[in-house]
Amino acid sequence: MDKKSIIGLVLIVGILIIYSVLTKPSKEQLAIMKRQQDSITQVQQQTQAKQQLLKATTDTLAAKGDSIRSQIPDSAKTSALQSKYGVFVSAVKDTNEFITIENSLLKIKLSAKGGRPYSVELKKYKRYDKKPLILFDGDSTVFGLNFFSQNKSIATNDLFFKPVNNKKSVEVTNNADSVSLRLYAGDNSYIEYVYTVKPNDYMIKFNVNFVNMDNIIAVNSKTIDFNWAMYVPHQEKGAKNENRYTNIQYKHFEDEDESFSATKQEEKKEVATKMKWIAFKQQFFSSVIIAGDGFNNTTMQSVMMSDSSKYLKHYATTIALNYDSRAKYSVPMNFYFGPNHYPTLKKYNLGLEHMVYLGWSFIRWINQIAVIPIFNILSNFIANFGIIILLLTIIIKTVLFPLTFKSYQSQAKMRVLKPQVDEINAKIPKEKAMERQQAVMALYKKVGVNPMGGCLPMLLQIPILFAMFSFFPTSIELRQQGFLWATDLSSYDSIFSWTAQIPLISQFYGNHISLFTILMTITTIISMKMSQTAATDNQMPGMKTIMYIMPVMFMFMLNNFSSGLTYYYFLANVITIGQNELFKRMIDEQKLLKQIHANKAKVVKKSKFQERLEKMARERGLQTPKK
Predict the structure, then answer these.
(1) Please, what's the b/e burial string for 585-624 (b: 16 or more CB within 10 A of its CB; e: otherwise)?
(2) Core-most of 46, 69, 370, 521, by most CB within 10 Å?
(3) Exposed / middle / buried, residue 100 (Cβ in 10 Å: 0-12, 13-18, 19+)
(4) How far apart are CA 283 and CA 234, in angstroms?
(5) pTM exceeding 0.90
(6) If you ran DSSP here, which 8-state letter would residue 354 be given?
(7) Bridge partners for 117 per DSSP
(8) In sequence order, what are the residues at sequence separation of 6 or more whose Cβ sits closer than 8 angstroms to the Cβ of residue 107?
(9) Are 451 and 414 in contact (CB under 8 A)?
């Protein structure tokens, strides 16, 4: 970024500040706004009173309606239900009952109404408030088939299934066990849901069996719609950070996976191609439906809830399941209810591990082949994740040590050459920028100095920074792991917080102060200042301004992020500061200057780049500087 760009950035910030001051409402405007707000509040109160009156009236009418309906003969009621539900009339009314099936990892509560998973609890995890971790819970979920039977629209989500046996609870220990629920459409015709759970496994086998339904479901039906929807509850301390990684993700049958935006208020997609799985994903946990033979013509929708809601988002999908009208037909599927733990997901060989966001292609590759293996090896021997992050940082900085040293050494060479560069700049006026640049490049070439030698090694370290940015916020291993003052390394650390909403501050910074973020910012400024001092002052004058702007911007951005991430950046800065002090003592600048002067005596062949520069200068009528 050059000086003009820095000045432009500063001017933009200044304009925004001046604009906010100038557009601040006056006392008279504030009084008018208050009167308007009072009027709105009064109208809302009147509306609320009318709604309460309307509700009371409706309840009275409903009570009278119940009284009237109670006088209707049972035969008429049965006839009305028969007309609406046909052969499924016996499943319309029943007493709901629940069946639980569990292993050492999860507990599934099945509801007879809809035959659906009513709730799923992950037994080895807790919410941020130490309550049981429930992926979804309650009658708000939708789970069932939609089809036509004898010209009647049937939704199994509203009908009652019958358990095949009378077990209320099934505990899976040594061998897989199943629970079957049937929706009867006569004596020998039914739709059966079979849930099979294995010991110590998050994967659940789910089969939909159609038995003697060929004359009940419309014969021309080639597909049957399967609807699945749920409200996703808060699980983590930092809801804003959690929402960044909460979205719908899906995988094409023999292709790559895709995902919804995590920041859009509402998003809907229709996918006509064959799909392998659909995941209702959160930051650290997911509910995934997996096809046996592939899903066709799928519609998915995600809606973000308000900040005051106890839910993050509402997910919904409609899947076209293949159907063949015959006496017995089965649709095999699987569910994964569990953590977004990379090794656990990878073992299923379904591409589910891509739900753990590790960055785009090249960054993901760094995490997969380097960061995750090192992290897992360290966690096998060390229980404290703060120490693990420290050791991981030391290992990474050790590997990058040669590049860091080469960068500092190049800066030292540029620094000792600064007097000669200043001499060239004094001899050649600014108007002859090409001639001045050519002369400086000739000097660098003659003494054997690469002006890019200090930048390239640093640029090669940037992918590591991005890899860490992707790795720490999605590492479930850090979840609810404390270190020093941080109670949860997967979320922000807070040394001070407040509830009042402060304009701009609460929106962009948050209602707390993260100490690791503050330490990261301070050490970043110190590290950049040392690098600025080590480099030549006149080459990049804009860096003095950006040195302070960028760390402050990152302080605002990362205040709500994983404290494990800001802790890592803080450690990396501290090690960098120590390395710079070490390099300062290792490199003798006087000796380096003598070596550079010795290089001047050597005959140096012109590079192709320098030849092109000189050719361009001759074409413009400039004289090539003498050696």
Answers:
(1) eebeeeeebeebeeeeeeeeeeeeebeebbeebeeeeeee
(2) 521
(3) middle
(4) 10
(5) no
(6) G
(7) 110
(8) 100, 101, 120, 121, 123
(9) yes
Q: Give tens-digit pLDDT for 575-605.
A: 988 888 888 777 766 676 666 666 655 545 5
- Give the integer Cα–Cα distance in Å for 517 and 506: 16
Residues for the chain: how many in total? 627
| AA identity, residue 309 | S
pLDDT digits (tens, 9 = 90+) for 260-307: 988 888 999 999 889 999 999 999 999 999 998 889 889 999 999 887
Helix or strand (DSSP H, E) at 357: none
Rounded-to-integer distance, Cα 412 and Cα 324, Å: 76
Q: In this model, does residue 73 exceed pLDDT 60? A: no
Interaxial angle between packed helices 385-399 and 563-586, expressed in degrees from 0 to 180 and rounded to the nearest 10:
40
Residue written as token pair 């849930």: 195
DSSP class of 486: B
**Beta pairing, strands 311-322 & 223-233:** antiparallel
- The pair phi, psi for residue 43, each rounded to 5°, is -65, -40
Question: Helices 385-399 and 401-416: crossing angle, nearest 10°?
Answer: 50
**DSSP-derived secondary structure letter, 367:** I
Dist. CA 422–CA 440, nearest whole Å: 10
Helix (H, G, I), strand (E, B) or coil at 130: coil
- For 146, phi and psi rounded to 5 degrees? -125, 125
Contact in structure between 513 and 487 (CB atoms under 8 Å): no
**Cα distance between residue 436 and residue 442, in whole Å:** 10
Between 18-27, 305-314, 498-507, the lowest mean confidence (pLDDT) is in 18-27
The span from the CA of 576 to the CA of 570, in Å, is 10
pLDDT at 104: 93
Degrees, nearest 5: CA angle 239-308-500 = 85
Return the structure tokens found at 568. Answer: 């890592």
* CB 285, CB 126: distance < 8 Å: no
Type of residue at 403: L
CA 221 – CA 501 distance, rounded (Å): 56
The β-bridge relationship of strands 169-171 and 98-102 is parallel
Cα(209)–Cα(211) distance, rounded to whole angstroms?
6
Confidence of residue 468 (pLDDT cuts 50, 70, 90): confident
Spatial distance between the Cα atoms of 235 and 281, rounded to a whole number of angstroms: 12
Question: Which residues are 231's β-sheet partners?
Answer: 314
Which pLDDT value is given to residue 538? 46
Secondary structure (H, E, C), 90-107: HHCCCCCCEEEEECCCEE
Residue 241 in this model has a pLDDT that exceeds 60: yes
* 226 bridge partner residues: 145, 319
